[in-house]
Amino acid sequence: MLFVVALVMACSASSLMAQGPRDYRSKNFVLHSDLSEDEAKQLLEELETMLSLISRYWGKPNRQTIEMYVAKDIRNWPRSVLQQMDADGINSIARGAGVTVGLTTTAGGQRYTKSTVYCIAERGVPKHEAVHAYCQQAFGTTGPLWYSEGMAEMGQYWRTDDHSVNCEDYVLDYLRKVQPKSLNDIVNPTVEVTGDSWQNYAWRWALCHLLANNTNYQARFRPLGLAYLTNQNVSFEQVYGPMADEIIFEYLFFLNHMERGYRVDLCSWDWTARFSRLLPGRTGKTKVKAAAGWQPSRLLVESGQKYDFSASGQWKLAKDGESLTADGKPDGSGKLIGAIFKDFKLSEPFELGNYGTFVAPESGQLWLRCRDGWGSLADNEGEMDVTLKIYGPGEPLARPSQRTPSGSTASMSAAATKTASSNSPAATETSAAESPAPAKASSSSVSSASDAAKAASKLRQGKLMLSRDEEKAKTYLQEAIDLAPYAPTAEEARKLLRGL
């Protein structure tokens, strides 16, 4: 309080010279600020956009005006204005931070909370505090600290139809360079103090951003948040405990690869994919999208075993970019690459391309993707049809068709294979000669009409069991995927499984 008195006395000396804050209004906000008129209008537009997004997310409109004191230099504010402000608010601004003060009253048996924001005008702080003000007025609380501050940080970064990472560079640099904080330390800290540090806010934001956007966890995250905001007896462990290993893996993967433009939804891990070993002479097929992260091949590989592969199709690294084969560009971007996943650990990536042989560097699940920057996947287009088989037995894989500039195609099949060294995972090019006809496709790699019909039936059964027996529903949905893994029924079944 002594600090506030001193500040008021200091300000009174120059109050005659200082213009102080002006008042600006929009649909949902009253802004008292020394920002310029243009800056104030820009801030109000951003606040209204953010409020629209968060009120839509939580499903509750804002029904009260949010009052905000936003200061560039509070030392120039006149005494008459400071005397109207909350002492904690003045102190928070003077420290270069922000605080939201809520006053709750009861009328007619109903509780009402009126929130007022006091903050500096820098670094998205006004939008952060406005999220707190909305939650206080709409729900009467902001939830536990990790959720409250994490969602407020998300609020300042949210954009219309944009789920990418767009936080400040200093936040990205910090999260990528330091030892990751454990989920337990974020969700269950030994000491909880709001406004503790921007570093702690960064960890809370990272976890909330992951859970809100990852397709494996977002269906549970919004209900969890609403339960927090409506004071229900619920915990993070109750909701996500059975998925702990998966969340920890994706959380660490997010921290290791995040950059501006990173899309958590496009990089979500497909935990529902089933993997199996190929029989000698048989082939397996999968599709790999350019606009996604690691994707399951559904093939279990054995360390040291050779495998043939063939990838047909085209993809682009930008909407207006050139069409590429799985060999990508000379600099290696756009190339089909692989990695082995086992026991929640991912191996170093190794190059494949559009045709050749590779040696599995270790045993486990084979995952594939188009090599591109992790923050650049969203504007990619196209996909590859990848065929895999154990090296040796059976007919050689057909070399993928290559489309010429005139639009004609030429098909080549393998004649001889250059072997890879037994200790190298890198793919080797397979020499080939022109052939009158491509090798026959394996009958086991194509879903028959009968399988598609059976898959549709299993999908219907799974839907019927969703509200009756979740375990049976999971069984039917997985059977629908296994019967016709590339049919539309499989995609629908996968989406339903992710929500369970």
Major sheet size, sense and barrel closure: 5 strands, mixed
Strand content: 15-25%
CATH hierarchy: architecture of the largest domain: Sandwich
- At the first level of CATH, the class of the largest domain is Mainly Beta
Numbering strands along the chain, what is their spatial order in the largest sheet? 1-2-3-5-4
Number of helices: 15
Structural domain tally: 4
What is the fold-level CATH name, i.e. the topology of the largest domain?
Jelly Rolls
By CATH, the superfamily of the largest domain comes out as Galactose-binding lectin
Structural class: alpha+beta
| Uncertain runs | 1-18, 403-426, 428-448
Number of strands: 17
- What does the overall shape look like? elongated
Distance between the termini: 53 Å
- Radius of gyration equals 28 Å
The helical percent reads 25-40%
Structure report:
The chain has 500 residues and is α+β, with helices and mostly antiparallel strands. The protein folds into 4 domains: 1-122, no CATH class; 141-269; 283-445, Jelly Rolls (Sandwich); 449-498. It is built from 15 helices and 17 strands. Strands 1-2-3-5-4 form a 5-stranded mixed β-sheet. Strand 15 and strand 16 (409-414) form a beta hairpin. Helix 6 packs across helix 9 (198-213), helix 13 packs parallel to helix 15 and helix 14 (470-483) runs antiparallel to helix 15 (488-498). The longest helix is centred in the N-terminal third of the chain and has 22 residues, at 37-58.
